[in-house]
Structure prediction request, 56 residues.
Amino acid sequence: SSTLTVLKITLKSFDDCLYLLDGRLNCLSTLITYVKEIANTLGTIAVIGRVQVQQV
Prediction:
């Protein structure tokens, strides 16, 4: 089996980013995203641990 620990991806919206962080990728240690549009989100963000966000 394989484990995804690093993911670099371009997303259409911030909601797509939230779907990636729903808990299924529990071994993911690094997520690098380019989000084309950040608008009103569909849901509420629940933080289950420490998340570090770096703006570039």
User: Anything to note?
Assistant: Residues 12 and 36 are 5 Å apart (CA to CA).
